[in-house]
Design goal:
The complex is a heterotetramer, with 2 copies of chain A and 2 copies of chain C.
Chain A lengths: L9 E14 L2 E7 L11 E5 L10 E4 L2 E3 L2 E6 L4 H7 L6 E8 L12 E6 L3 H11 L5 E6 L14 E5 L12 E2 L2 H10 L7 E5 L2 H14 L2 E5 L15 E3 L5 E3 L6 E3 L5 H5 L10
Parallel strand pairs in A: 8-9, 8-12, 9-10, 10-11, 12-13
Antiparallel strand pairs in A: 1-2, 1-7, 2-6, 3-4, 3-7, 5-6, 13-16, 14-15
Chain C lengths: L15 E3 L2 E3 L3 E3 L14 E2 L11 E3 L16 E4 L2 E4 L8 H15 L3 E5 L4 H15 L5 E7 L16 H14 L4 E6 L7 H9 L4 E4 L3 E4 L1 E2 L4 E2 L5 E5 L4 H15 L3 E4 L5 H9 L4 E4 L1 H5 L3 H8 L8
Parallel strand pairs in C: 3-5, 3-17, 5-8, 8-9, 9-10, 10-11, 11-16, 16-17
Antiparallel strand pairs in C: 1-2, 6-7, 7-15, 12-15, 13-14
Helix pairs in contact in C: 2-3, 3-4
The chains are: A alpha/beta, C alpha/beta.
Bound molecules: flavin-adenine dinucleotide (2 copies), flavin mononucleotide (FMN) (2 copies) and FE2/S2 (inorganic) cluster (2 copies).
Chain lengths: 278, 278, 310, 310
Amino acid sequence: MSAAPASGPIFATGRVKANGLLCDGMHRLDLELPRPTAFAPGQFAMLNFGGRDRLIFGRPLSILAVEAGAVSFLYRVAGEGTSRLAAVAPGAELAYFGPLGNSLPPRDDGPPRLLLAGGVGLPPLLAWHHRHGREADLALFGARAPQQVPWTLLSERWAVSVDSAGQTPAGRAAFEGTVVALADKLLARRPERDWRLLACGPLPMLRAAARLAAARGWSCLVCVEERMGCGYGVCRGCVVPARAGDWLTACQDGPVLDAATIDWERFGASAPTPGGGS
Amino acid sequence: MSAAPASGPIFATGRVKANGLLCDGMHRLDLELPRPTAFAPGQFAMLNFGGRDRLIFGRPLSILAVEAGAVSFLYRVAGEGTSRLAAVAPGAELAYFGPLGNSLPPRDDGPPRLLLAGGVGLPPLLAWHHRHGREADLALFGARAPQQVPWTLLSERWAVSVDSAGQTPAGRAAFEGTVVALADKLLARRPERDWRLLACGPLPMLRAAARLAAARGWSCLVCVEERMGCGYGVCRGCVVPARAGDWLTACQDGPVLDAATIDWERFGASAPTPGGGS
Amino acid sequence: MSATPAWFALDVGAPWRLGSRVLPGRIWTASGCFGYGLDGHDIRHEQFGSPYAGLGCVVTKTITPQARAGNPQPRLCELPHGALNSIGLENVGLSSFLADKLPELAVRGVPFLVSLAGTQPDDFGAMAAALAAVAGELPNWHGVELNLSCPNVAKGGVDFGTDPRTVETCCAAARACLPARVVLAKLTPNVARIVPLAEAARRGGADGVTAINSLIGLEVDLRTGRPVLPRRSGGYTGPGVQPVALAKVDEIVRETGMPVVGVGGIAGADDALRFFALGAAAVQVGTAQLRDPFTAAMIARMLAPAGCRP
Amino acid sequence: MSATPAWFALDVGAPWRLGSRVLPGRIWTASGCFGYGLDGHDIRHEQFGSPYAGLGCVVTKTITPQARAGNPQPRLCELPHGALNSIGLENVGLSSFLADKLPELAVRGVPFLVSLAGTQPDDFGAMAAALAAVAGELPNWHGVELNLSCPNVAKGGVDFGTDPRTVETCCAAARACLPARVVLAKLTPNVARIVPLAEAARRGGADGVTAINSLIGLEVDLRTGRPVLPRRSGGYTGPGVQPVALAKVDEIVRETGMPVVGVGGIAGADDALRFFALGAAAVQVGTAQLRDPFTAAMIARMLAPAGCRP
Ligand SMILES: Cc1cc2nc3c(=O)[nH]c(=O)nc-3n(C[C@H](O)[C@H](O)[C@H](O)COP(=O)(O)OP(=O)(O)OC[C@H]3O[C@@H](n4cnc5c(N)ncnc54)[C@H](O)[C@@H]3O)c2cc1C
Ligand SMILES: Cc1cc2nc3c(=O)[nH]c(=O)nc-3n(C[C@H](O)[C@H](O)[C@H](O)COP(=O)(O)OP(=O)(O)OC[C@H]3O[C@@H](n4cnc5c(N)ncnc54)[C@H](O)[C@@H]3O)c2cc1C
Ligand SMILES: Cc1cc2nc3c(=O)[nH]c(=O)nc-3n(C[C@H](O)[C@H](O)[C@H](O)COP(=O)(O)O)c2cc1C
Ligand SMILES: Cc1cc2nc3c(=O)[nH]c(=O)nc-3n(C[C@H](O)[C@H](O)[C@H](O)COP(=O)(O)O)c2cc1C
Ligand code: FES
Ligand code: FES
């Protein structure tokens, strides 16, 4: 699971290049950094405000891309911090600390990948797909409704599911149901095949993905979320219950974890935002 | 000392009409209130920000004037609160609580008044002079330098002193020395006369005014400053040591106090801003 | 301001029983932060009318047997997350309170508790007896809150509030003189375990406890390198103490089941809700009442049952 | 950031003596907030280089005799003015620390103290002895900080830190095994009087005390009306506890004259200056070090004597 990027994390002041709604409930932030940075899909950064606005803890967001000196994120407004983030104008400064955590392993010769992304769980999988995706892989994205789908980011190779149907852009369609139901449907067409699952999204979705993989004996990697203090392994705040009995950290052992190593029963009890949907 | 205004204090949200530098080191704020308010010279208001910016305590500022539904203040940037106040733009909302405290007594048939105002101690005396001033009165304003004098506010009836000389506007002159030295000089021209002193400004100036009055047997009213919690008499934070042995409150017994009732020795020990000059 | 959450079912403006009294509401003002309940009557607010509208109770500034001059200035210091005060229990003293303040409290009709402090346990009985004798007929006088945070001269200066035996003695002394009024013990958070103090208050006959009084804090003036307050430390109050207050209220409620009046950093309806969530019977507004005399009235209005909300 | 005030004459980057050791500086990181001193070595900052640059000492996460799994999640809760944590002393245990962490600490050369906790006084002696045996040759290992905030199972679960006798016993046990290293007692602020604890530490042979550990605090989730943390309350740290930390440090410095390492809400140079103004010998950065691993390094740089400032 390691696949560390060439360079270590940096702590720096970034300048907001763009920040705005991408689709219903999903914002995109582009942040210019003082020097170039590398990242591997699945890694995240801790973002914070400066001066009097500084929050006690940074906010972990997955890195979507690094392009032309700017690092990009997708986020939904979940509480105080992200709602203040949504109000930040281009030119403003933010504290950037990243890239942090492990990452999705790059392509190997194993079976094709089944990518399951839910809502703002998209960045790790989109980045992976962009770098390593192959024709044989299946990339699925799920949202509540068509207007919550960032169509412009998703190439036609992405299949889309929505909880409730509605208007889709010309030439694009959406399956009505959960992203896991869509996976079931698509997998039924290729019954002979083995898959490796990569999943990132809300906890119930991760749970369903892990169950699906376990039932068929496939491997499954999930990107987990936990409340974070530091993001770099020193506070032991972001623990995820391990099947082995103790804990994994979301920020150092993760955020990419093998679903088989997680104690899903205990994990449920600790959802950072009960009922939340990121 | 009471002369209470017709109406009691109100707590309301005001909208900034204008806020900017009047002269070097002196800002003027005009705040529109939802309903008309009365005030008597010497009274003050507690101002605060709203929402996340709200300070633990309001900031006491003397009322300069109420005109056309707006209440005006003069202030200098002394610390965190006033420096944030200086950054507030027209249209912003501020919490207003006033008018508070007692006031300078209106005109009576006694001897003429000698008004001594220093820096942002100007509002009470300017307001009083505007309402009650007579030809026979002497109105003096002292500042550090000519560019710190709000010339546009001061009619030609105001004599001005500056610590260090410099360019004055056409037709205006400034005495070089303290405002009390200027008073001495002007009083020397009218040696037969009795005066009543009204003084508002930094503590050393109030001290000197009280000494001057005491030496000649004149009465002297001073507008005092103390750290305030509430501004309406409930916290006992703003006490001024009384000659009688206990305390006077700056917010209820004052801010206008008879200099003879103050224990000046103990008062010195409690200057809220050592070396400050408001 | 968000809507009242689903779990919240209390009507903070409905009469409720505490000990042998029925109090008109559950949003109160804290001792030392609203004077003697007399200084806000001519203040007006567009939306909330009078600062006394909807108040369950005003707890007076703490009264001592004799008048106290209090501490030198400065007495207040604003902090980024609260305030420090060093008022030093300045108050008019019991006889002056009875002579000058009580008659006006009688006229105003605001529900109130009198906060009492002394320097030896007997003081509490004597003061309660004097109060009962003079105020016994006042329908809006509901009882006393014992401020147990002063040094006990009879015990070598140890704070009353940190010794369970003394807490019990003080409560018993007040209770004996006030059989039919509320007796609350106000507890200090500056102890390792607060529950034994609450239990001692109950043994002494208190109807409940108020938690918390101020923490001990200090602020340094960076220009001089010296403490801002002449006595160096002072009482730390306001938003920064709320997590501590919540922890103490929770301990007392869960381990004793006593009625607890919660206080610490309450400045809005959400803050009050946190205390009610933990089972507080009522809440008090302290520091925030200084900045805005309508804070308690506003909270009472905000938390009123849906039907009554503006 | 304002310039260093005139009264401040300390060189926080100069070697100084604490007990029998010479430490390289006075700006440290606090236990539990910088891991085992190993997790920041590949992090970079334009201005401050390495997070370890200029650090006087890293105090490790508290080590217990056996590994501890710690508490269930969520373990952290952000507050408007600080944080609550309920990590539950999760740590790798002494033997794993000695086997896996010490060798890397040796290679890295970062100056460090090991924070120790146990469930009975003997634990402190045993752990100190084991440390001395394995780490005795390490020049960058300066000694131990005794975290006395756990329940003492030998004494019926009362916190070590609230009982002067136990503080003395624990310090004496560690001292006996570490004649030539620093022994600090880290004190809890959750007591009525902290000075007797500091005096007990001195009687036990401690070279100084660290003050303060976290306050006890609680936060309520307004959506559910229940505490955010599964164990209800947790350790309250960050800016909101600073006034309390300053008051405790001031008391200890003035009443005992002992070397005090100040900790509580330090996030910038001004915060550190407040503690130094009161006579603290060194300071630690806790919660703020989580948000920004360069906080302590930045403070060390900011407070360096004028000649060395960037
Ligand atoms: C590794 C990782 C990657 C993430 N990537 C993304 C992403 O790409 N896009 C996105 O929209 N969200 C992402 N999240 C979730 C995001 O961090 C939270 O939505 C955000 O922290 C909420 O902050 P807030 O102040 O708005 O909410 P509040 O609820 O006000 O926050 C209070 C505290 O809880 C924490 N918290 C609240 N919700 C979460 C959560 N779901 N996960 C972790 N901590 C939480 C906050 O960090 C904060 O400390 C990620 C989380 C993790 C751990
Ligand atoms: C009755 C009265 C009338 C006043 N009128 C004016 C006026 O018209 N114009 C003007 O510029 N100033 C006036 N002042 C002083 C003004 O209140 C302070 O300059 C201001 O509160 C400083 O706030 P700050 O946050 O900028 O400073 P900080 O030093 O950051 O404030 C910290 C705390 O100290 C208090 N404080 C600091 N300085 C003073 C002071 N001099 N007096 C009282 N409290 C202080 C603040 O209110 C705050 O609670 C008046 C003060 C009083 C008591
Ligand atoms: C200026 C001031 C004066 C106070 N005086 C008293 C007092 O006389 N008696 C008392 O029991 N508590 C007193 N307190 C403590 C408050 O009643 C309350 O317990 C404390 O402030 C915590 O609540 P808060 O955070 O809402 O302020 C005082 C607090 C302040 C700020
Ligand atoms: C996440 C976290 C974990 C902590 N773990 C420990 C610990 O293991 N041992 C200890 O003595 N103190 C521990 N502390 C307390 C800190 O060392 C420090 O005393 C406290 O946080 C106050 O400082 P601060 O306000 O700078 O955070 C911890 C604090 C935090 C925030
Ligand atoms: S967030 Fe601190 S250890 Fe993971
Ligand atoms: S400011 Fe509170 S009594 Fe004057």
